Please model this.
Amino acid sequence: MRSRLRTALATLVIACLLPLIADAASVQSPDGRIRVDVDVNERGEPFYSVSYRSATVIGASRLGLRFRDHAGLDSGLRIADTGQRVSDNTWEQPWGERRRVRDAYRELTVQFVASDPARGFAVVFRAYNDGVGFRYEFSDQRYYRDVAITDELTEFRVATDATAWWIPGRAWNRYEFVHHESGLDAILLAHTPMTLKLRNGVHIALHEAALVDYPAYVLDQRRDGVLKTDLTPWSDGVRAYKATPFNTPWRTIQVSPDAVGLLNSDLILNLNEPNKLGDVSWVEPGKYVGIWWAMHLGLATWGSGLTHGATTEEAKRYIDFAAEHGFAGVLVEGWNKGWDGDWFASGAGFSFTEAYPDFDIEAVAKYALARGVRLVGHHETSGHVTNYEQQLDAALDFYERLGVRQVKTGYVADGKGLERVDEDGITRFEWHDGQYGVNHYQRVTEAAAKRRISINSHEPIKATGLRRTWPNWISREGARGQEYNAEWAIPNPPNHTVTLPYTRLLGGPMDYTPGIFDLLHQGPESQHRVQSTLMQQLALYVVLYSPIQMAADLPENYERFPDAFQFIVDVPTDWEESRALAGDVGDYVIFARRERGGRDWYLGAITNEQARSVKLPLDFLRDGTRYRATVYRDGDGADWKSNPYDYVIETLDVDSSDAIELELAAGGGAAIRFRAVQ
Model:
């Protein structure tokens, strides 16, 4: 009797405890192909895993945070509660790769608590058909009211036989490196987006979304195949200062059965909050030219003097060229005081409202507006952020008065080279992608929005989809751009531009500055040249997405090839829809995009150092419509190294039932305009 009573009491106690101890939780994508599982191990360490079509993509990987002054949330935890919901809606971009974006996911919220129920956090997982996002969420709780985060334990455990495309993290040149293609054993620290191809052919990309008031992370490979988030620190070593309630950025895993699927993913955008600015009709996609490339070629200088590039006369020449060909803006670098001497080391000397005597900015701005063109502003800081912030309001007010609607900012400084003067007057040096840098770029963007000015950040924080929330953050650099093909660097190799779409551009638009026509500016034997054919330079306008595109070369070089230049004149920068059609990471890529509000399609195809032939169905075209295709392609003898100017322009009549054979030369490409004719 007593035995049965003890058993009954024990059963009752267990039954009472069951609501307090949840089982392991899981969630699947709407199509059921992606599954996330969440649990704690015997030490109370939380972990998650991800599978795709029942095959492991991310093995059991840790979750958790540690703090300087508080107990860590890394072990001794249990799952106290879980909840799920489903969402499926479509939202509209004011500008972008596509007008309408479907946002469909299943969400799982897992509440973890310690032995003291006052200590805990939630992790929210969203499973989409194209990947997974998850983040930590802290409610308003007394124990973690103000915290100094010293470590985030989030891991991505991947198969060690994967192939990775990556650039080094926390290195001197920020994000401006050529991507490595290697096994995981070569990786120590790596920036994101980082793309991996698993043994079964599945491709994944690791990144983050909605990076606000938090440091960016780099991937730190600990044990083999265990990639841990390594938050970029402040100068004092703390990773992040936060006050509850707060959420971290989303950690993202894009998943696709092939490389092309990654290019058609909207995961990063969907994990960002909707537009906070309201009416953004003043944000103007378009093309621009500028006083820029001549300085990189050594033909002119940013600083004042006999070869100063930013003169009133030269600016008007570019404005005339822009007006003649329908370009919206003219960028002028080097107009303001501070460039003389070693500007790279003297960022405190920049003025953002005072022009050099040979540049009448008031007259130039008026002349541009009279010709239907806007002056594109430029703020180079040389990484001296305090100097820039002290002048920021006055600088943006000045540009607003002149009718400037876009500003290119610059932060040319080595990694951990942002200068911050603290409240005691002591200069501290911070990382571009630390919490301080993240918050600075955000402040500039929001301050610009108050003046209806858009920001194009160079030497930026990486793109994480914030253009959805602040659509005036219209583009950014954040990778090796075209300037490395000038006089002062080893040029970008042919596989560079066919890697960027599968890596850097997964985060968002890039101002690569395409369109160099003088490919051999130091002669065919010089290492300082552009390693592409002329036709690839045209195709980049479709392949490397940005809502603002620069025709980066000198006007006189475009006048040498007016027939090829016509494609740059015609191609839009804002799209109704976009489709990646074919490609492999580092090998080749083909995109088709339809102009915003129109019927015409544009296609761009580029390849690496290997020539290739691709037969491409035109089934992306609208059924029942005939198109006149103007094809800009490599000639039969074209080769980036020996014959980059061999090209053919021809016209074809096609419809959606046709296919086209693309012959891409080594380092070459093709660009096509499909004009709807009936």
About this structure: The domain at 21-270 is CATH 2.70.98.10 (Beta-galactosidase; Chain A, domain 5). Residues 385-402 form the longest helix (18 residues). The mean pLDDT is 96.
